[in-house]
Design goal:
heterodimer, A: mainly alpha, Four Helix Bundle (Hemerythrin (Met), subunit A), B: extended
């Protein structure tokens, strides 16, 4: 249609009726992707539930080897980054390019901080040998009586690791958003990529909202 | 695309404050001993937080309801996944026909027998040494 319409905006693909249909289609597809993401993590949550029901006491004792303060700091960092991401979209909707780029940069820095804190946690675990499966070697006075803590750390590392991978991918996407917005490719007329990456970023936050109490705050 | 809903700045700030507040609540309540209710409260708070994120930050509240439907479907499949798996893992050996499948993996893995005891830094210690003094040196 837009092939014949010289007034159609350049971002409108010819196979869509209008910009609104194009936007709604993109968003629906993004939510289909979010569905597959939830299902990916669902398998890991099921593993967590099954093993916790088999080893209730070990999970409670093994979680004490994690650092609640680092976990809480990361929760605050990630919630704040979710806010700055939402504000980046709010700013571009208001056509405030400068503020939008600022908020995206802030989101990127918070994501970096999250991974930095995660790195500190991981390197400590590697040092003392609180590792998954056969790599587990920690027999300290607070853990020697535990029944198979390597299972707790297998689930901890695979779940927080996959989540951390999502944070890293999100950082790459946000870096690209900073570039596109700065270049002027995204405006209040067309900001679909920012809205979609925003949804992805909030999902990363949403999953951490469950991981935090499940690993750091067991009864 | 002026027809898109623009969420007011105030809404975002209120939601973010609520999320930070609830994060504090969930840490605080984890130090109160509620027995088996601890996990219920923790998951309730997490679900409230997740709903705030989904409805306000992810704009589901103002979106066409087909997006919310997709999201709820993923959670529904998760529920089915958990239920059917637990129907297996929670009731193994209950018929008494094959008692050894009850708690099949509750034995300690064999490799623990070969692991040396360590201090809190992961360094091996011999059973009766004065590792308390060593610990004091570190701190």
């Amino acid at each position: 249609m837009s092939d014949h319409n010289p007034n159609a905006p350049s971002h409108l693909k010819h196979y869509f009726h209008d910009v609104n249909q194009q936007y709604e289609t993109s968003k629906f597809a993004m939510w289909a992707f979010i569905l597959t993401e939830v299902l990916t993590f669902a398998g890991l949550f099921v593993a967590y539930i099954v093993y916790r029901s088999w080893y209730p006491d070990m999970f409670v004792d093994a979680h004490k080897l994690l650092d609640v303060n680092k976990g809480l700091t990361n929760t605050i960092v990630l919630i704040t980054s979710s806010l700055t991401m939402a504000l980046a979209i709010w700013a571009i909707q208001k056509n405030n390019k400068k503020l939008s780029v600022f908020m995206l940069v802030a989101t990127f820095i918070f994501a970096l901080a999250f991974l930095g804190i995660k790195y500190l946690e991981y390197s400590h675990k590697f040092e003392v040998g609180q590792l998954p499966g056969l790599y587990y070697s920690y027999m300290g006075p607070d853990a020697m009586h535990l029944n198979n803590p390597h299972i707790f750390f297998s689930i901890y590392f695979i779940m927080t690791g996959l989540h951390g991978l999502h944070v890293a991918i999100g950082m790459g996407l946000i870096a690209w958003l900073i570039y596109s917005t700065q270049k002027g490719n995204l405006t209040s007329e067309y900001y679909t990529p920012m809205e979609m990456i925003g949804i992805f970023w909030h999902l990363v936050d949403l999953i951490w909202i469950y991981l935090f109490p499940l690993f750091y705050l067991i009864g | 695309m002026s027809e898109h809903h623009i969420t007011p700045l105030k809404t975002y700030l209120i939601i973010a404050s609520l999320l930070l507040f609830l994060s504090g609540v969930t840490v605080w309540v984890s130090y109160v001993d509620l027995g088996p209710l601890n996990i219920v409260v923790a998951m309730l708070v997490a679900t409230v937080k997740a709903s705030l994120v989904a409805f306000f930050f992810m704009h589901l509240l103002w979106d066409d309801k087909k997006n919310l439907t997709l999201f709820l479907m993923s959670l529904m499949f998760f529920g089915i996944f958990v239920t059917i798996t637990l129907l297996d893992t929670e009731f193994r050996g209950d018929l008494g026909l094959n008692p050894e499948v009850k708690n099949p993996i509750n034995n300690r893995a064999a490799f623990y027998d070969t692991l040396p005891l360590t201090d809190t830094h992961g360094h091996p210690v011999d059973g009766h040494s004065d590792d308390h003094d060593k610990d004091k040196d570190h701190h």
